[in-house]
Amino acid sequence: MRVMFAVYAAKTHFYNMVPLAWALRAAGHDVVVATQPEIADAVTRTGLTVAAVGDEHEEVEPAEASARGDHVTSAGTWQSINAGMTETRPEALTWEYVLGAFTVGCSLHYEHLTGGRTMLDGLVEFARHWQPDLVVWDALSYAGPIAAEVTGAAHARMLFGLDYIGNMYQHYTGLLDAQPADRRDDPVTDWLTSRVTRYGAEFRPGSSRELMTGQWTIDPTPSWMRFPVELPYLPMRYVPYNGPTTVPGWINERDGRRRVCLTLGVTARENLGGDLFPIDEIVDAVAGLDVELIATLDAQQRQACGDLPANVRVVDFVPLNELLPTCDVIIHHGGFGTLGNAIVHGVRNLIVPGRYWDEIGFGELLESRSAGLYVDPYRLSGDALKSRLPVEELRDQVIRLLDDTAFAAGARTLRDEALATPSPHDIVGELERLTARHHRRQLAGTART
């Protein structure tokens, strides 16, 4: 069968998909990755085929800021996009709240994450030409399910972290059904209908749930991270892919001290305008401990840190899949790729979270499983969009993680649970069966109409 992966221009979201794309290709299926031009080179460096669609990704400003004429940073945009959708407190999820979250989401955020008109047009055009049997779409890339609906392909959503959208959409549909007929505003169906019918396709009644949450969901998060949502999930083990790299020889050279890794990931550098926190404060907080600190810093971050003691090794990039087996603790921003690497290698986590999506949620979940801790840089400032790093707390949390053996045991438990989950290779057969069940035309290998 032909499988098209659809993802917007964020390398970390694409890297999340690479092991599954490889597994399908190795099983004999045709695979192509459809994305915006700026990460086309990153796709080809994995050995996969790319279809560059649409224009380069454009920054979007929240509507309220645009009205004022204020500039909004990439980080601020992401915090605005995700602030409403990540609410989980039942008492807060009223009809007015949930309706507002999806009204804003559909009118601004999903259009942005779909890649705008040019990506959607390009993806549909390519799908009509290539005729995929299955579209696997990143959970924020709504051009994928729309192209699948227009061409009759089966489609699966692939999560990159906690399923806040699935959780919120379940509340949305339940509350919508409970409204009087004259109050059943449905901005989700309105938005999806306009996108599907734009290409001459008929909007199928009842298809909104599939288009928002997939005909099924490929879930690389551990089962204990899943919300109690009634959706068809297909569990898949997270398999690290850190990009093309060479393993440095120093990784296995140890000085006898416990090793701590510090990384704030590449997303903030490349997509969000820089780090949210002063990197020099984090380095200073840890460098004074009796540890070997491996810090991934680019030239600008390194310059901000000034002179560093001998127990600090600075590298611009290091493959976490190779480094983390040698580490006791990792300090990071809460990105799912970094967390996934840490879980499969049984490393204790200290999350210094941004508020882009699920970083604080990850921290809370890790604490509940005694596999990590988190510090909340927003608690001290009292502002949901402004951070102030609690340096002393951060240092104390590192010491706790290193000295309390319960955290090491908790991290090993998470590793063992992850390794017991089906791998990308293991789920290929189920993807074939689900595709045969959900597609609305003949599969590849049969005569096409």
From TrEMBL:
Keywords: Antibiotic biosynthesis, Glycosyltransferase, Transferase. The keyword NADP does not apply. NCBIfam families: glycosyl_450act. The keyword Transferase applies. Belongs to the glycosyltransferase 28 family. Residues 22-265 form the Erythromycin biosynthesis protein CIII-like N-terminal domain. One of its GO terms (molecular function) is hexosyltransferase activity. GO terms for biological process: antibiotic biosynthetic process. This is Glycosyl transferase family 28. It comes from the Bacteria. Residues 281-434 form the Erythromycin biosynthesis protein CIII-like C-terminal domain.
